[in-house]
UniProtKB/TrEMBL annotation:
The keyword Transmembrane helix applies. The keyword Membrane applies. Residues 1-22 form the signal peptide. It comes from Littorina saxatilis. Keywords: Membrane, Signal, Transmembrane, Transmembrane helix. This is Uncharacterized protein. The chain crosses the membrane at residues 32-56. It comes from the Eukaryota.
């Protein structure tokens, strides 16, 4: 639960930063599009990384990651979440968090890199 609160605070921080002020409808649409793409692509990306329905793939990296996570007790949540997403997709709550973060990052990136260029051309 603490991770979700940190993500929400991070998204709020990005939206209140100087680069993300004065949102337009195109910024909102871009954020929604970016969030949708990431939510749809996440299960495919996890499966392509070897965390699919058949279990963790035979790659040395993935098996070592799983071994270290279970041996040390650190990272078990990450490995199990990647496995669950690769096997069955995102839950509704995961989709909401991932879409919010991806949309915020997409909009903030657009405003940071492209909005300043438009002002320079006019001024």
């Amino acid at each position: 639960m603490a991770t979700s609160r940190m993500i929400v605070m991070f998204c709020g921080l990005l939206l209140t930063a100087n680069t993300a002020t004065a949102l337009t409808w195109s910024d909102v649409a871009l954020g929604i599009a970016g969030g949708t793409v990431v939510v749809v692509a996440a299960p495919y990306a996890a499966a392509a990384a070897g965390f699919g329905a058949a279990g963790v793939g035979t790659s040395a990296f993935r098996t070592k990651l799983m071994s270290v996570a279970w041996t040390t007790g650190m990272g078990t949540y990450v490995v199990s979440t990647l496995q669950a997403v690769g096997a069955g997709g995102l839950t509704l709550a995961q989709s909401a968090v991932v879409a919010g973060v991806a949309g915020t990052v997409t909009t903030a990136t657009k405003k940071a890199f492209f909005d300043g260029e438009q002002e320079d051309k006019c001024g």
